[in-house]
Task: inverse folding
């Protein structure tokens, strides 16, 4: 029967070999037709929106940190930590992402500075993650190739739930930084970070570890938890929003296809979540046209939505829709949610999709 | 001996933009800079197989549409990850409203 082969998520294993052999790796992906003039306009960079958002972001981070310190020892510090945590542990992900693409600001160094800061907040090695994200765009949810598949099949629901607490990520990220600081990269990491860049990953990890050591030293010196609750630990208590929005990008949708309309999801979200997430809720649009900056994604969405599945109207709706799919994947890991296209859309292509879709789609 | 080949008409490329030019089984990218000069490079990114002509020209930079890798299209220099290998460039001249590139 088609599609019963077990998925091997390592990047140097059986699925990798199969993806390369079948042409799924580095394949030609589907794109909605957009006139060059229109896409060129949407791709245009400007510093204005990102400078405005970054000022708000920094002021909100410093303000909530100040409130948390001021009210430290009373219950009043809780709402400040709540805000600070989300800004530190969640909104940093979208800043990392947009600045990693180099699309947030027009000025390169501004992208680089925010990218480095956000990488630190996320406990992500800025070098290895840049390369893993490039791979994610080349081979989105191609098993054995994509290093950023958040929920593998069959889904580990306990793991997915724990992700909201940040514990698993913390447990992975910190030891990974220590390992990299010691000069050791895994075979997976070596598969997507070119040799000439690997030493930079080691240096970046050393900087991160040095800052954590300095933070702990400061906490010991001050005889206070405050430094660690403000630096490092927010990765635990502030991660939930990043996970809530980020999981929806691809969860429960098809894998091993070369059409982002099948494996990626656009969800309408409230303005606060969109600020935290920097419009990455327009995720199909982002994957099809990664050159378009976050602030132009709503316009891009309007331009191509006739060719995309209907977006989920809310975060809640998207989770409600995907929950039964995940439960079914526990038994039938080939099962996935196939999102219907509107009549105005070009149909899904056959070459890589027919087997999977007929075998497993809803 | 390197040949001069007609790539396009001057008006085919907007200012601060790029178009694709295929010749002899190869693909090139023809650029028109903001100060109205023409340049030519290989058409594919050196990172993976992406057409640079689908990318964005900003000043003297071409940004690849796939992973946003950047090159200086005047010199071919790769400006950092994920592009590490420079782009080949080709001499260009404009004659009678035609953009000619010299291909080895
Ligand atoms: S293909 Fe051009 S940057 Fe990756």
Result:
């Amino acid at each position: 029967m088609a599609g019963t082969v077990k998925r091997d998520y390592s990047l140097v294993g059986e699925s990798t070999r199969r993806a390369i052999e079948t042409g799924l790796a580095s394949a030609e992906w589907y794109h909605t037709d957009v006139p060059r003039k229109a896409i060129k306009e949407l791709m245009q960079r400007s510093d204005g929106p990102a400078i405005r958002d970054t000022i708000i972001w920094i002021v909100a981070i410093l303000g909530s940190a100040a409130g948390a310190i001021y009210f430290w020892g009373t219950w009043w510090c809780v709402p400040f930590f709540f805000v600070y945590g989300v800004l530190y542990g969640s909104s940093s992900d979208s800043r990392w992402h947009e600045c990693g693409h180099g699309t947030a600001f027009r000025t390169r160094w501004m992208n680089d500075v925010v990218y480095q800061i956000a990488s630190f907040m996320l406990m992500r090695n800025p070098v290895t993650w840049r390369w893993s994200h490039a791979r994610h765009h080349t081979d989105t949810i191609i098993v054995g190739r994509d290093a950023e598949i958040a929920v593998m099949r069959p889904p580990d629901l306990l793991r997915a739930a724990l992700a909201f607490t940040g514990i698993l990520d913390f447990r992975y990220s910190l030891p990974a930084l220590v390992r990299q600081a010691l000069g050791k990269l895994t075979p997976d990491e070596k598969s997507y970070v070119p040799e000439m860049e690997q030493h930079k990953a080691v240096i970046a990890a050393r900087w991160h570890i040095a800052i954590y050591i300095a933070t702990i030293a400061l906490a010991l010196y001050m005889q206070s938890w405050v430094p660690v609750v403000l630096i490092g630990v927010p990765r635990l208590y502030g991660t939930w929003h990043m996970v809530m929005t980020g999981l929806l990008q691809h969860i429960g949708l098809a894998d091993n296809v070369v059409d982002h309309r099948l494996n990626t999801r656009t969800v309408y979200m409230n303005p606060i979540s969109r600020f935290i997430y920097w419009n990455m809720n327009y995720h199909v649009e982002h994957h099809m046209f990664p050159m378009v900056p976050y602030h132009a994604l709503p316009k891009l969405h309007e331009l191509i939505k006739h060719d995309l599945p209907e977006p989920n109207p809310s975060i809640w709706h998207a989770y409600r829709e995907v929950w039964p799919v995940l439960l079914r994947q526990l038994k039938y890991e080939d099962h996935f949610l196939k999102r219907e296209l509107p009549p105005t859309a070009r149909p899904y292509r056959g070459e890589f999709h027919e087997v999977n879709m007929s075998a497993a789609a809803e | 001996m390197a040949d001069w080949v007609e790539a396009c008409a001057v008006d085919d490329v907007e200012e601060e933009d790029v178009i694709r030019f295929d010749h002899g089984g190869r693909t090139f990218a023809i650029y028109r800079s903001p100060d109205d000069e023409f340049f030519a490079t290989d058409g594919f990114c050196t990172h993976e197989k992406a057409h640079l002509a689908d990318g964005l020209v900003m000043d003297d930079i071409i940004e690849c549409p796939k992973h946003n890798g950047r090159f200086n299209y005047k010199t071919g220099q790769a400006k950092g990850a994920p592009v590490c290998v420079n782009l080949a460039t080709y001499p260009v001249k404009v004659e009678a409203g035609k953009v000619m590139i010299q291909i080895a």
